Amino acid sequence: MTEQDLLGISNQRYNKWQEKRPIVCSDQDRYNRAAGFLVRKDLSPSEKSACYFHELTGCDGLEFVVFSNAKLENSVRLPKGVILVPCFLANTEGMDIRNQLLQLTMKMEKERRFIYDGWIPIIQWDEENVRQAIRNVDEALSIFCLNGSPYFEWELKYPVSRESLSIYNYTHQHLQDFESISKILDTLNAADRMAIYRSLAWLSQSLRLNEPAARLFFSILAIESLATYIELEAPDESPLIILRSDPTPRADRLKNREQCIENVLSQWLKSDPAKAVTTAYFDCVVGIKRRLKTHLEKIFAPDNGPIDLLFENKIEGKSLYDLRNDIAHGTTDALSEAQIDQIRQRVWDAEKTARKYILATLKKALGAATVNQGLTASVSLDMHNMVPSSESMYQGPTNMAVLYS
After folding, report:
1. I need a labelling partner for 101 at 20 to 30 A (CA). Which of 73, 266, 297, 379 fits?
2. Model pTM?
């Protein structure tokens, strides 16, 4: 895109290109109308933010910021009308090292995280068009995965709600608890120890991610991986087998399963093959969900809360395990903010259940002490998204490279 093209779009925007200044509103009635979108249950977080921004500024489009390891040195117009403008220098040759934008460009190069000012117009302003514009941004950025491994993350410049990273304050008692558990795990055989750390790794990995679907799925995998090991793979001398829902020795269980399958097939295979297969599976080979539920009932007894949370409690028709299956089988629409927001609201439930399961396993099978839960956390507020009555009330930076690097 040419500078002339960008100049022609500038009068549609609230900010100049590569800038983010605070939203200013001294009209209480207008602010009240904008705030009305924040309590709408039928809008996703991004839709609320977009409508709020439009009501306060009159801007007929979405201004957003993009983070990527893809380096686009020039402004580009992508499919769906999406425009990206680099917030870094394309040519740094001969520049003074003291130049702030040069330093920020070098920082982006080092971190492989380039910042772009994004824009997509909305000709007709209503909820459906806002929803489609948000999806259009996702669709336009998703195409880049076809010929490489770039990542693209984006957010609206003025999100009305955003998860803030917390600072967790660990005490000496917490560290002693962890050391005690580590010593217990070191006494286990290699297979048992690996199974427990594998479960911890799935949960730990989920905490590093931003995508709600991956976070929820990995949290439940933390439960499933250890439960499957205990039920099917742990050797008979393992201390973990006291948690097994079926105490029959592994060799005997395999023999009984094979005999059950043979009996069913001999009875039904010739007359009704479909019935033979389904009966053999459901009567002889316990399904993952059924085995997991039976296992957790024994782990958490007499507390049915975690089982209900995982399998029974439904929000918008979906239990945690329903959401897990939708993600695992690819039926979740990764570009539908409504579906992703539904998952986002359940991530904490999945994480909490996984943590409770691992701790219960360590305590009941290995005698590990309960980890001290007196953990405090602090968060910081994003003051740039406050709405002052005058722009002079904000004295901070407006350059996006400064704000987001």
Report:
1. 379
2. 0.72
Cα 271 from Cα 276, distance rounded (Å): 9
Facing residues of 115 across strands? 67
Instruction: Indicate if 343 and 309 belong to the same structural domain.
Output: yes
136 and 101 within one domain: yes
Per-residue pLDDT of 349-400, as tens digits, reads 999 999 999 999 999 999 887 776 666 665 554 545 568 777 777 778 889 9
Preceding amide of 247 cis, omega within 30: no
> Is residue 15 domain-shared with residue 117, that is, in the same domain?
yes
Q: Long-range pairs for 168-173 at CB < 8 Å and ≥24 separation?
A: 168/375, 168/376, 168/377, 169/375, 169/376, 169/377, 169/378, 170/375, 171/372, 171/374, 173/372, 173/374
> Would you say 389 and 25 are in contact if contact means Cβ atoms under 8 Å apart?
yes
- Residues in the chain, overall count: 405
Do residue 119 and residue 182 come from a single domain?
A: no
* pLDDT tens per residue, range 87-120: 999 888 888 888 999 999 999 999 999 999 999 9
Domain extent at residue 47: 3-162+382-404
Query: Within 13 Å, how many C-alpha atoms sit on residue 322's CB side?
Result: 15
Residues 265 and 226 placed together within one structural domain of the fold: yes
